[in-house]
């Protein structure tokens, strides 16, 4: 893997997005905290 890909994932409602599509600390739908999951 050349680049580490991190998926943004909402703790509450399960919304997720590519980091180049959306960058924030809160979910755009339910405003809950977003956590980052680095993929292998």
From TrEMBL:
This is Rubredoxin-like domain-containing protein.
């Amino acid at each position: 893997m050349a680049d580490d890909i991190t998926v943004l994932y909402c703790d509450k409602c399960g919304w997720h997005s590519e980091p180049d599509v959306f960058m924030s600390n809160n979910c755009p739908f339910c405003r809950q905290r977003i956590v980052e999951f680095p993929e292998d």
